[in-house]
Amino acid sequence: MKNPILPLLLAGLALMMTTGCADRGCTDPAAENYDPFAQSNNGTCVYRGCTDPNATNYNPEATISDGNCTYPVVSGEVSFWSSVQCCAIEVSLNGQILDTINDFYSNNPGCVNGNGIVRISRTPGSYIVSAEAITGTQGYIWQDTITIIADDCLTYEFGL
Known about the structure:
Radius of gyration: 34 Å
Strand order of the largest sheet: 7-6-9-10
Helix content: under 10%
Order of helices and strands: HEEEEEEEEEEE
Number of strands: 11
Largest sheet: 4 strands, antiparallel
CATH architecture of the largest domain: Sandwich
Number of domains: 2
Number of helices: 1
Strand content: 25-35%
């Protein structure tokens, strides 16, 4: 009586030699786990990069996040306006002169561009706003801290 295990064992060994199971691995030299001896790619290649599709440097081939994703700069708006009919007002933000308000409004004009409005876009955060009357009632100074919020528009009035 013949042993049925020996032919099955030989057939399995022959199958492994012809399919190259032992020679499967990552065949991409750009991958972290590249195997120079692999003859067939088994789909296990590892790539580091940004894995967040919302980031500007998203890498669709990355399989592991490298923690270096970058995102678009988000900004908020602020419109400075005045209800004072006295003078030109020079507006500064964190000590940097932005522009001069030369007109006034009796009501909040909203977050628009227009005569007598200084409108800026900045990254969200807290800023020190200061303004000074440079004609008419010279020496009148305003100072406050404002908070700019992403995707929002703040209106800020200089009044008496």
